[in-house]
UniProtKB/TrEMBL annotation, chains A, B:
Coiled-coil segments: none
Domain Apiosidase-like catalytic: 98-353
Domain DUF5060: 3-70
Organism expressing this protein natively: Candidatus Moduliflexus flocculans
Gene3D superfamilies hit by this protein: 2.60.40.3950, Glycosidases (3.20.20.80), Immunoglobulins (2.60.40.10)
Listed InterPro entries: Apiosidase-like_cat_dom, DUF5060, DUF5605, GH, Ig-like_fold
Lineage of producing organism: Bacteria, Candidatus Moduliflexota, Candidatus Moduliflexia, Candidatus Moduliflexales, Candidatus Moduliflexaceae
Pfam families referenced in this protein's UniProt entry, alphabetically: Apiosidase, DUF5060, DUF5605
SUPFAM superfamilies linked to this entry: (Trans)glycosidases
The protein's name in its UniProt record: DUF5060 domain-containing protein
Amino acid sequence: MKTIEQWGIFEIALEGRPAGNPFTDVALNATFSYQHRQIQVDGFYDGGGVYKIRFMPDTQGEWRYVTHSNHGEFDAKQGEFLCVAPSASNHGPVRIHNAYHFRYADGTPYFPFGTTCYAWVHQGNAMEEQTLQTLKQTPFNKMRMCVFPKHYIYNANEPVYYPFERDDTGQSDFARFNPEFFRHFEQRVEQLRDLGIEADIIIFHPYDRWGYAEMTAEQDGRYLRYLVARLAAYRNVWWSLANEYDFLLEKKPLEQWDRFFQMLETCDPYQHLRSIHQGSLLYDHTKPWVTHVCIQHADVKRAKEWRTLYRKPVINDECQYEGNIPLPWGNITAQELVHRFWIMVANGCYAGHGETYLHPEDLLWWSKGGILRGESWQRIAFLRQVIESGPADGLTPLEDEWVWLHSVTGGFNGNYRLMYFGEHQPAGWSWGLPKDVAYTVEVIDTWKMTITPIDGIFKNAAEIPLPGKPYLAVRIRPVV
Amino acid sequence: MKTIEQWGIFEIALEGRPAGNPFTDVALNATFSYQHRQIQVDGFYDGGGVYKIRFMPDTQGEWRYVTHSNHGEFDAKQGEFLCVAPSASNHGPVRIHNAYHFRYADGTPYFPFGTTCYAWVHQGNAMEEQTLQTLKQTPFNKMRMCVFPKHYIYNANEPVYYPFERDDTGQSDFARFNPEFFRHFEQRVEQLRDLGIEADIIIFHPYDRWGYAEMTAEQDGRYLRYLVARLAAYRNVWWSLANEYDFLLEKKPLEQWDRFFQMLETCDPYQHLRSIHQGSLLYDHTKPWVTHVCIQHADVKRAKEWRTLYRKPVINDECQYEGNIPLPWGNITAQELVHRFWIMVANGCYAGHGETYLHPEDLLWWSKGGILRGESWQRIAFLRQVIESGPADGLTPLEDEWVWLHSVTGGFNGNYRLMYFGEHQPAGWSWGLPKDVAYTVEVIDTWKMTITPIDGIFKNAAEIPLPGKPYLAVRIRPVV
């Protein structure tokens, strides 16, 4: 019997050339069964007369399947496979954990430290491979990336592949996908997976000159279902319905975005994480189909407000980017981006990285990938280490009145504390300390990436001494 | 005929020892007349059998007066004086100008760059003289200062003078003022005046161990009227009803604060500027008796929101202090305070300085005065020079969408621009530039205090080049 690792991909391929449009005229799906449990999974046409069904089993043991199709040749095909233990680096898909945090399906903690290369899969093989090489060196475990190519400042180049069949004039046939495009896209998702990186897949976006932002609701829906049929079996997939969805509201009103969310809920057998990213008008992330808050906002000191408002994990994926382009969202210093990361993270939230340094050939990481030129990513790696060596269940913001008054930031879990002082330079600190328990204090230089213990064991101390310098954090851990 | 300079003080002194409490049982005031114009001015008891009436004439020419009293000896006293041109450094009291700004009564621009030494007049002669010496070297042209002594952290010392008569046990008689206290206080106000510094007089505050915060509404009102009778004739007086009034709300409900404002409107013949300072609950500064917004808030990027909300001049008198004490409001870096000043000021608002460095004898400038130990005050002096060499009518915030999105800050007046980039480091800039006019561009290093012209004259430039470094500002001036 064929074996597939848990959260791996089992694929069925069926050959045949039915009449009509193979993307729209053939209905194909399969029922996968484990004992009495049944899961319906849609198939898709992959070109060259080949139809496929992909499935990600979540339970070890013997699975069976049977296909269903309006094309008799594809109907009632049966088979089985054995789902075995996952390989060492396979922890399954990421799920919500502890209300405001994440972990992998196998229980391993996952703290998102993502970056953004919107159009990296459209830059040609050499640069795409370079991006993957860069990612190997960096801390990033999530990648925000668009399906569609991008038309925007610093983004004038044509993509290598197009998602739909095109005629000689460049007109797309939105009823016919280009399987080559999607195979290429999947390859990149798979390579990210093998680097331990979640693919935060942006389904729609407004930066367009090919007509993808102008599709009808029916065309949008078909595209969305095709994408889910192809990609949902990859365990590292997250769905980001759009980038700056509000810049598309004239074409796709709010109800349509709600419907897209409901379609994802309906089509995706694995319920991958779902969110949506805004320009200036926040989507109502309290809606039940949103699994976590994706936000674009420069004022990271509002982190706690977003937690309180939405009661879900908060990722500020775009708290502006390190760079020097003329646009304010793309020219903060590396120090400032690191500062914003610490504020989000010590508040029990998460942040996203991006880099926008001007380049003579417009090779900006934020969109095209390639190489990193900045100085924030190393500090984000350091912060990730600090967080991963902390409580597995994540941090909750301290609510002490002196902490929340738009000033210093402090997160806790039990008697663990991570307090970030930023532009503050207290020579001592009294608030939010553990009570009636012995603890150690370490001073973290967030820029120099050093961790320095303060001598002694503290217990019910009125105040802990601090160096009186800015951009420091303090880690407090109970003595066990 | 006696001569008094315009906005100087004309004083009437009357001697006598009527029966009863000389502070409460004698009613005394005077009517001052200039041609057909009449102004009522309250008198006050100054101890030693001397009653006084002080008057600040605002018009040059011949003035007459007649007194009124329930004590016959003081009634119907008449006299006259000649009001002459003011001396060179006397520009009169500060008034609101151009809706969001200030200027002196003689039309000279006044841009507030204030500091805070809450209890400096209660530190004894040596330190108080030292404070005045320090102020001579610094840019500050407004001083926030309390009438009452202060009981608070780092403030344990007894005052030299008490505002009310006290018995042997230290109990105050709130119906009997201590004229020596007020003469001392007036001397300090006068010395500030002679240094060109407005006295932002804080009438009530919650930091008390002597009972001043516990007075009845009647006692409060009597104190307020006595203060106005004594001090209103000093042209450099501003009224700040309270510091952190909201921490007194249990004792003095909101209606009482409204009433205090109305009393100031009623008693003060000169209508000095009036505001109130909050801890966390903002007073409604839209109320008609508030002349300008006094605010305590760390998030200076909300400056434009406060302008829009209140439609009055905005002074963020406490956007946290340079220092290193454990409390977040008193431990930001000098760099951060300078940064916050620039954000407020380039938004057409104003900010206040304070310094809270730990000291072995608790000599913190913010409360006691003395000497300055920090590094922000020099940069505030530099900023004041920049502002004073700019448009006399002050700045209005640019509303370009890229500027206001919680990012860079830009103020304008006609074709003048002052744009502050802060943590942003654009290599070029395109937004909010003047149209159809030739202009020069200078780069201002807000910390190093340098102003560097960019070569060339610009006109309808798509973009101006910038150094791509943080904490810079740009000054744009039309070529005339």
